[in-house]
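ingest -> fold -> write
write: protein_1
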Amino acid sequence: MTISPTPYTGRFAPSPSGPLHMGSLVAAMASYLDAKVHHGAWLLRIEDLDYDRNVEGADASILASLQRCGMQWDGEATWQSRRLPLYEAALQQLQQAGLVYPCGCSRKEIADSNLRAGVAGHGVAVYPGTCRHGLAAGKEARAWRLRVPDASAGVLGFDDRWQGWQQQDLGRDVGDFVVLRGDGFWAYQLAVVVDDAEQGVTDVVRGADLLDSTPRQLYLQDVLGLPPPRFMHVPMVVNESGEKLSKQTGAAAFDTGAAPSTLLQQALLPAARFLGLDVSASNIEAFWRAAVPAWAQLLSRLPARA
């Protein structure tokens, strides 16, 4: 299968909360291969806005592990912490349009409201709109929230290149969501949307754990007047208990500093097999030569391919 060259910019955007694990490698590999198959650029962005979770030296470890795996990004790597004026400008745009408002609710208050109402959101506590028409007496602003359309009026759908058609009712399943957190940190949803647009990202390839975030990002792109990228959410690596493989669930680093042949056998080849790629190779360079056409073949078999 041959894919004609098209304007394509992809990215890998890990958080520096620890070394990369197998789940991270699967996402990185999928985004890297998709960029190569489409003759596009592959950017590296370190998403380090959650300062409380950052681990000193983790960003350097991430860069080194990717290079040891033979994955070289295009241009210079970027750090979100160096891009704060972009997020401030986006918030000011939303404020001027009357689309955001200050909120004084704590997580516990929101959770209690959900419990009383018997509401179950898509992986998030559904905001009940307590501060939508102004702060209640005695409350102080903790965060800024983006207004979403009411239930049934805010159904957003998109065609995921791996998962097929997806949709979510923002008003019912999420509610008005945070763009600037109560601790002063920029929310992931706002930062990633601003970054992808500013960097010209056309295709987002990432793990399925972020599938439910996509409608919020599409809505933000719409109200900010930004072009939406295409999305592909690849299967998520889980541990023996069925939990997402992550640093929080004790996922081990895939790169232990062992020889390249060990890295190939214990990390790259298993990650490729997890993605459904039939690849064999005796060294890392040969692995990528085989993996790129294997990814192209996999794309041709996806029913939701876009």
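write: protein_2
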Amino acid sequence: MNGRTERTTPLSRSAMAYVLAGGRGSRLHELTDRRAKPAVQFGGKWRIIDFALSNALNSGIRHIGVATQYKAHSLIRHLQLGWAFFRRERNESFDILPASQRISEQNWYLGTADAVYQNIDIIESIGPEYIIILAGDHIYKMDYEVLLQQHVAQQADVTIACVEVPLADARGFGVMHVDESDRIIDFLEKPANPPPIPGREGVALASMGIYVFQRDFLFDVLRRDADDPHSKHDFGGDIIPALVREGRACAHHFARSCVRSAQEPEPYWRDVGTIDAYWEANIDLTDFVPALDIYDRTWPIWTHTEGTPPAKFIHDEEGRRGQAISSLVSGGCIVSGASLRRSLLFTGVRVNSFSQVSDAVILPGADIGRHARLANVVIDRGVRIPEGLVVGEDPEDDARRFRRTAQGVCLITQPMLDRLMTA
């Protein structure tokens, strides 16, 4: 279900997807202490970046570049393991582009625009006609071919993908003020009074951080920006506002290109940039009919898949029964005489006897000790939960020991537990 129209030669075959994956992800706190936000695990088997990359692949794009910077080792390793199947002999390319001071020996990537500018020579060697700039840290399914078609049809200098959000929520986004033809007439960064969509009171258009350019036009813009000593070299802060003022900038409504199965009544897009948003988006997948259909085989989300044994549930006696209700349990997990409710377990998690776990997101390799009671938690990779630990019942005690959010979700990492054990 999307707005693609048939073409003899898809525009996607002459496009390159350029994924910006260098952000710190500071609002995820300790989850990004050792990994970039796009490398954070999501949904039981994926990394966040897999959604943008899969959208590109499924849309027909065969040239992809990923710009990395902060804490990139985990991300780069994942890309090498899961996305190394592109072949030059098939006119395909997949380039990992760490900040390597290609232009200046003093500067790493100074901003999102500079992260593209510093690799102009690599992009030129590939020779795409169009470049789609993507954020590597959002969860959604989108057919970029539809976006490309609108860009060409409207003869835009830049086309910006936008998601419709309630006015009350739009204050936290970059908001597009558009006319009746979706020409952007103003760009407002986190406005106090966001303008509504014409004819749609109560709804605003927020930028998704997705931009389409014709290659040579983009290069000219980036070179001028690089020479501007007053620029922060950022798409959202410098490039886009200038093009809105001086060029032809058009908005693309995400609903027109969102890929949805019959099980997805509404367009789905999530910024999982906070602990609460990350927990909620993962837990939502346990719903009877989740808002995001991860079972849609017509638009698969690709990733590196580990060879793991099936999940295992053991023991069947009162008070010690391995069971999972309304939960997702990945390969290699063992639920040994414990009870799970509305929880999501990544690969290789072990939950030991007499434990009770609910509303939990548990990252790979964690081990839950006996008699633990855990509710409303995110447990980091490889964490060893000690026997009898109770989280989610005493807010003050939780906040003293772990990172507890305003919505009552506790992030638990191994250093937090180590400090607790030595206190």
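write: annotation protein_2
The mean pLDDT is 93.
Residues 215-226 form the longest helix (12 residues).
pipeline exit 0
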